């Protein structure tokens, strides 16, 4: 079946977003141009501006889409954890092992620097961060893990962000973070946990 013009437009848009993300990682935010994106996506240069207006618009959308996907991974892990202490244990273990795709981490780092100069990008990132903090705070409160869930969620996010950046600098980093994560959200240390029947 021949794709419709809408489907072709959606496919072109997706290719442009993917190309922009790849180029940010490979060359840096400031080095990405219309011609480079079009060549990587294998489309005419005019289509970049047809779908996004400016290269900056495309870079912002590609970046925010990547961060939203990464945030979604952690939120899905919390949503899928079974209820009760066992679910909390599984979620903490998953967070301790969490290490974003290095390409996504590079893109995020480039985006954070660009956000210092672009209000729209900064606002988009703040919105995503707020969603993440609220979801994690709700999860912490639902499990009765802390009396101050929102600040704890913010600190937990900062810890995970830092862990990802440290692993970007040193991919061989193998420092266990289970203990600090457990303490942060109010769980007893592994050795202090009551034995399960």
Summarize the structure.
With 197 residues, the chain is mostly helical.
What is the number of E strands?
A: 0
The separation of the N and C termini measures: 59 Å
| Rounded average pLDDT | 84
The CATH topology is Tetracycline Repressor, domain 2
CATH superfamily: Tetracycline Repressor, domain 2
The CATH architecture designation is Orthogonal Bundle
Number of domains: 1
Q: What global shape is seen?
A: elongated
Low-confidence stretches: 191-197
Largest sheet: none
State the name of the first-level CATH class: Mainly Alpha
Features:
single chain, 197 residues, Tetracycline Repressor, domain 2, 74% helix, disordered C terminus
Description:
The protein is built from nine helices and no strands. It is mainly α and 197 residues long. The protein has one domain (5-187): Tetracycline Repressor, domain 2 (Orthogonal Bundle), CATH 1.10.357.10. The longest helix is centred in the middle third of the chain and has 26 residues, at 55-80. It is elongated, with a radius of gyration of 20 Å. The model is unreliable at 191-197 (pLDDT under 50).
């Amino acid at each position: 079946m021949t794709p419709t013009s809408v489907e072709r437009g959606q496919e072109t848009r997706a290719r442009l977003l993917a190309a922009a993300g790849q180029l940010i990682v490979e060359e840096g935010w400031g080095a990405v141009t219309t011609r480079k994106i079009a060549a990587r996506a294998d489309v005419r240069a005019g289509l970049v501006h047809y779908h996004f207006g400016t290269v900056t618009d495309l870079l912002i959308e590609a970046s925010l889409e990547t961060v939203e996907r990464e945030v979604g991974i952690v939120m899905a892990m919390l949503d899928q954890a079974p209820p009760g202490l066992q679910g909390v244990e599984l979620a903490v273990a998953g967070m301790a092992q969490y290490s974003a795709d290095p390409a996504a981490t590079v893109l995020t780092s480039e985006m954070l620097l660009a956000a210092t100069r672009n209000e729209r990008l900064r606002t988009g990132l703040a919105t995503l961060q707020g969603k993440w903090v609220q979801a994690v705070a709700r999860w912490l409160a639902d499990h009765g893990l802390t009396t101050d869930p929102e600040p704890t969620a913010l600190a937990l996010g900062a810890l995970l962000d830092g862990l990802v950046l440290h692993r970007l600098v040193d991919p061989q980093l193998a420092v266990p973070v289970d203990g600090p994560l457990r303490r942060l959200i109010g769980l007893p240390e592994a050795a202090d946990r009551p034995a399960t029947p």
